[in-house]
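CATEGORY: protein folding

GOAL: derive structure tokens
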Amino acid sequence: MHPQAALEGIWYRPGAQARRHPLFWPLYALSLPYGAAIGLRNRLYDGGGLPRTKLPCPVISVGNLTVGGTGKTPLVMLLAELMQEAGWRPAILSRGFGGRSSRGVHVVSDGRRLLATPETVGDEPVLMARTLPSVPVLTGPDRVRTGKAALDRFGAKLLILDDAFQHRRLARDLDIVLTDLTLPFGNGCLLPAGPLREPVRALKRARIVIRTGSEAEIRTSPASADAGGLRGFHRPRELIRGDGAERHPPAMLAGKRLLAFAGLGRPDAFRKTLAALGAEVADFLPFPDHHAYRRSDIEGIRQRAVAAKVEFIVTTEKDAVRLAPCADFLGEIFQLRIVMDILPERETLAARVLERIAP
């Protein structure tokens, strides 16, 4: 079992069950100094002991409290679209996790063309740049420096930070936090005993909290209908052959027997999405988040597909980005494009954001 999967077996159990796992208490001991460091850091920022830099434009941060996927990247792309529609000129800033370049500022897209590869800057920035060709996308560990580059080089009038709730040095006008509908804080413990990056009380810094999940979960759960609350669900938009040669509505998968694979923070969510479309998921291969696929992985997927006698091999757009060097394999598979939809409606989210950033 991959170490990440072993940890998640502890993280996403109810608290009492997690504490019965033999690894829980050693992990909990490690979480205590981590929690102390996070608490001290937050107090210093809150009290002004650590300085924060304000840039001469509105800044929006999208993030979460936990490790793993809650839909941050789809929401960042939706926000960029909404702000463009409202007349703003946004740029997206990302840490660039999973890429080789860990220092400096890297331009993934200048708002006209793609300028970097996932091997260099990570898969999610490349995915955002491909999906939003008119929006500059930059990566770098120093969001202040990256933000200044977006303003100076591309004339950005609004900065949208991907996965930056814990990056507090750059002052922001709005923090948006996503939480999973079904188990928002896992077992309630800090890393590494649980999935929390910081204590739940940090949620008070957020101006907008969006509960996320599948469409069925969001529409049917009483917990999702908080008065005035926003809910987000992941909606399949399009089925695209890996090499881009074919495009189909997601409903084409209904009744089809397929093998699926995904390297995500919560890969099982992708399997559930496919099942909700009516597909028969005969085999499913989970990989670690940001997994760098090797030829041995591809051959293993092919062999499992033959053994399962499937009609299609399906993965996510994010995984397809990492498979770009394997053009032969991309021609054999399909990628499912999934977007974020907002309830009660996306215009409600746009109005609440504009209320915070309007001059």
About this structure: The first helix runs from residue 3 to 11. The two ends are 52 Å apart (CA to CA). The mean pLDDT is 92.
